[in-house]
Amino acid sequence: MNWKPNHYAMLGLAIMSAPIIVQAKIYVSAEQAQKILLPNKSLTKNPIIITDELQEKMRSASSIRHPFKGERIWKSVDGSWLVIDEVIGKHEMVTYAVALSPNGNILGIEILEYVESYGYEVAEPEWRKQFVGKTANDPIKLNQDIQNIGGATLSCKHITDGVKRITVLFDLALKNANPKTLSSK
Amino acid sequence: MIRCKPLLGTFVEISIDDGTQIAIENAFSVIESIQELMGFHNPQSELSQINCHSHTKAIQIHPWTAQLIKIAKEVHIASNGLFNCGIGHRLVVAGLLPRHINLSNHDLGGIEDIHFLAPDLIQSFRPVCLDLGGIAKGFAVDMAVRILISEGVTAGIVNAGGDLRVFGNQPRTIQIRNPALPEQLIEIGSLVNGAIATSSLYFAKRDQQKSYLINPLAKSPTEAHTEVTGSFSVLAKECVYADALTKVLALSNKENHPCFDQFSAQAIRIPA
Lengths: 185, 272
Known about the structure:
The complex is a heterodimer.
Chain A: E1 2-5, H1 7-10, H2 13-17, E2 20-21, E3 24-26, H3 30-37, E4 43-45, H4 52-62, E5 73-76, E6 81-88, E7 92-100, E8 106-116, H5 125-129, E9 149-150, H6 157-174, H7 179-184
Antiparallel strand pairs in A: 3-8, 4-5, 5-6, 6-7, 7-8
Chain B: E1 2-7, E2 10-16, H1 21-38, H2 46-53, E3 59-60, H3 63-78, H4 88-93, E4 114-118, E5 121-124, H5 136-150, E6 156-160, E7 163-167, E8 172-178, E9 181-192, E10 194-200, H6 202-206, H7 221-224, E11 231-236, H8 239-252, H9 258-262, E12 266-270
Antiparallel strand pairs in B: 1-2, 2-6, 3-5, 4-5, 6-7, 7-10, 8-9, 10-11, 11-12
């Protein structure tokens, strides 16, 4: 191990001179997430209209108030599904992808983007929009300089809640849109 | 290449400078396996089996669980008991962990009660409620790094929600959240082939949670939940030691606690 401390930071000067603000980390794109979670499967976009009733059931099962949008749903020929969703906490917005088997088992979860803010902005759709669909190669300076962040453990509870609402979505909407699974039982 | 998955209750980031997607995939898999073995939340995990039965019968455990318990015992002795995984019941009572076992037994022991009958066979002298939350993340980071290296990756970073290890010859800048304003980062230095872990309560305070920093030597539950301000980081060659030793630093508030030397570790306190 070789450690070179930054003595200015230890004196507290770095905080005053140039604070680095945690803002956004972009990991993979929607396309990359598809390849990672459902490799070698050809996917077709399969948006679902989310009725008020379904929205309410997903909300009560997951305690996530932010409405689910049914646009980013893909289906593979073997009946697997890929759903991209985002959870919005008080301080962060996380976009993630969930892959489900034809029976609704979770095959994998991948984080696409993690955006953090301690302001009111995170609740503003306009502010969030600037990050959606960006890749790490975009000219907007995202995570190039903030790679190795240490600190108290960041909880991923919101993702657990998010995945809950995706399993409700599967049970109430996707499963029935999958006649192959039904007939094979 | 950088990827992130929700594991171990946090966001685990793996970044590699070279190597394949399969290397990252295998590194995430090993972390998943550790979560399945050592998770407190899962009533089927090996840890839950130890908590349920180890005082009544010998329990066969996975070599990784055995390795982690050995390290936990080692740090427990070196810290004079300030690090002890036998604090799960405090977190259960506070609602911070789920209740799988009956805690009415007042004579709960600690990691010191676990003894090895064979390299992969343990038993406990007293009932225990172990929580490996203060050490397993570091262990998982080390195992993931080991997998990446064995897959031929020459340089990279594994970061389990703030506990991280870097490998390869390149120095990496390390930023730590400012405990007073966690959205701001402080560049504290650069690290080659080493690990850094941090304990702090700023997220718990922000989310109005009770302190999860438990003093194992406290006699009463109110005394046990320790309130600290600032942030407590430890640098070590391996993340498992860095992770465990942050508790010793936060509870002792001593940067020169003798056990840091024993593990060639270095402590850093950042005031809030």
